[in-house]
Design brief:
The protein has two domains: 1-58, no CATH class; 61-115, no CATH class. It has helices spanning 14-22, 44-47, 66-73, 76-87, 91-110, 116-124, and strands at 27-32, 52-57. It is mainly α and 125 residues long. The protein is globular, with a radius of gyration of 18 Å. It has six helices and two strands; from the N terminus they run H-E-H-E-H-H-H-H. The relative contact order is 0.14. The chain has a two-stranded parallel sheet with strand order 1-2. 50% of the residues lie in helices and 10% in strands.
């Protein structure tokens, strides 16, 4: 391993670091902005041995980040309001976002390549 902790996917590959860590643990937690089931294919064999896998994923249907909102509105107050609305959505919005995220993941799974690796990944999850 290098003397620094920068993973640039040129010299240091994130996949290599994740596989090294997963080989010595019983549980894993990932936080990602966008989730694609196919992104787990390369670590599926490591996930098979996990007792616990937790995923914290961003809302896959809301692709606007706070920075994009700031660029579009160009006013700090509007950005603050938009950020607060995203940070504290109403219960109905949360239910809608959860349903939409589940539908998006279901759609992604339906469109996955039908390979042995994909099948192994989905049965592992």
């Amino acid at each position: 391993m290098p003397t620094h902790d920068i993973i640039d996917n040129r010299n240091e590959k994130l996949l290599d670091h994740i596989n090294t860590i997963l080989s010595s643990t019983e549980s894993a937690r990932f936080a990602v902005g966008y989730f694609f089931v196919s992104g787990l294919e390369s670590i599926a064999s490591q996930l098979a041995g996990m007792k616990e896998l937790r995923l914290l994923i961003g809302n896959t249907t809301n692709r606007q980040t706070v920075e994009q909102i700031a660029e579009g509105y160009r006013r700090l107050e509007m950005v603050k309001d938009a950020a607060e609305q995203q940070a504290y959505p109403k219960r109905a919005q949360i239910r809608t976002m959860t349903t939409e995220a589940a539908e998006n993941i279901r759609g992604a799974v339906e469109l996955m390549d039908q390979t042995d690796e994909s099948e192994l990944l989905l049965t592992t999850l």
